[in-house]
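Aim 2, interim progress: modelling of the zinc ion-bound target.
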Amino acid sequence: MTDVTYSLCQDCLRLNPTHEGGCKCGGETCSCSDCTETIKQLINGCLEYKTLGLKKPIQSWNAKTGTQ
Ligand SMILES: [Zn+2]
Ligand SMILES: [Zn+2]
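Predicted structure of the complex, ligand included:
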């Protein structure tokens, strides 16, 4: 189990270091317990948006590029 030290962009779902204020895409980042849980599931390969607590389906995900 690795420590999650990332915050999740609410827009593109890219992982951003927590010390950085926001995402490159201009979206808001969040590192609350819900988002941390979502990050763990994404890292584990889960793409089921309902499990992830997302509003719309995602086709793919990458830590560096998010869903883009
Ligand atoms: Zn973003
Ligand atoms: Zn959050």
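The pocket of zinc ion (ligand 2) is lined by residues 30, 32, 34-35 (CB under 6 Å). The longest strand covers residues 6-9.
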